[in-house]
Amino acid sequence: MRILVTGASGFIGAALCRELLARGHAVRAAVRRPSSPAGRPTGLNEILVADLASELDRDALVDGMEVVVPLAAIAHRTAGEAETRRVNAAATIRLAASAAGRARRFVFVSSVKVHGEDSGDGAYAESDPTRPQDAYGRSKLEAERALAEMAARSGMELVLIRPPLVYGPAVKANFLRLLRWIDAGLPLPLAGVRNRRSLIGLDNLVDAIARCVEHPEARGPLLVADDENVSTPELLSRTARALERPTRLARAPLWLLRSAAAIAGRSDEIHGLTGSLVVDSSRARRLLGWRPRRTLDEGLVETARWYRGAR
Fold first, then answer.
1. Pairing mode, if any, of strands 197-201 and 229-230?
2. Domains, in order of start, for the chain
3. How far apart are CA 85 and CA 142, in angstroms?
4. Distance, C-alpha 63 to centroid of its chain
5. What is the rounded distance in angstroms from the CA atom of residue 223 to the CA atom of residue 130?
């Protein structure tokens, strides 16, 4: 198929382009700056787009494409709500308006954060209420709702993928900080945390996205995750083992961790380390016949190998 991927030079976008090319698809990649000839996959058609939220010829960008996968997004909290909405919601909606009537399918990678930040003792399912708690989650939900209305009017097929935290080679933000903490040998006061978290490896996510591009029955919201849900102490221990570093976990009261984080303005980060967020990916597995192709440990070893090389 002929597929447009925006944000194609990013963490997920670059891996997805390689996966789609390996599956024999023709990929048009919207990038902010050209990749080096040595690093560009054979057959990738790069289109330079400095800012997808600015004025540009979106009709020409999507012309001739059968499937559109928009991955250009802002995930970090320092951008502010207005800028996050401009990139994650407004730009995606305008791209979909050009795709409607041209492309057959629109595959939007949203986030489990549209449901909230804490699944409690259960697991989020696609039918659960949407209660985003931060600018990123709100921007993704805004885009989801507008895309659903547009798809209903135009008949364009719409797939909404809601992953949890993604890890893998070239990872950034919170997971990269976690790697640095462990590598530095810093003691982490999280031994007493009793939670459960779903994650998804980059390789598993791009496989799920590719499956949503190809599968004739792919529709609607889909939660995807690795096979295992782990506690934060277990994740730290297994990541340390992948890095071939000692695990340095100390025990501290949860109230003290949260109080210290609030004083430092990092309440969101400590909640991500101490709260539970589990997803039920049974619908994706049943509808698409999808299963994660790498285990958590395999994904962590691959991530550690990249980290050591980058370091």
1. antiparallel
2. 2-169+198-230+278-297 (3.40.50.720), 173-194+232-274 (no CATH)
3. 8
4. 26
5. 13
Please answer whether residues 161 and 222 qualify as being in contact, where contact means their C-beta atoms are separated by less than 8 angstroms. Answer: yes
Residue 39 CB-half CA count within 13 A:
8
pLDDT digit string (tens) for 104-150?
999 999 999 999 999 999 999 999 999 999 999 999 999 999 999 99
Please answer whether residues 245 and 182 qualify as being in contact, where contact means their C-beta atoms are separated by less than 8 angstroms.
Answer: yes
Q: Where are the alpha helices (DSSP H) in the chain?
A: 11-22, 58-62, 81-85, 91-99, 135-154, 173-184, 202-214, 232-243, 254-264, 267-274, 282-288, 296-310
Note if 167 is an active site residue.
no
- What are the backbone dihedrals phi and psi of residue 288, each rounded to the nearest 5 degrees, phi first? -100, -10
The reported pTM is: 0.94
Active-site residue among 124, 136, 167, 307? 136
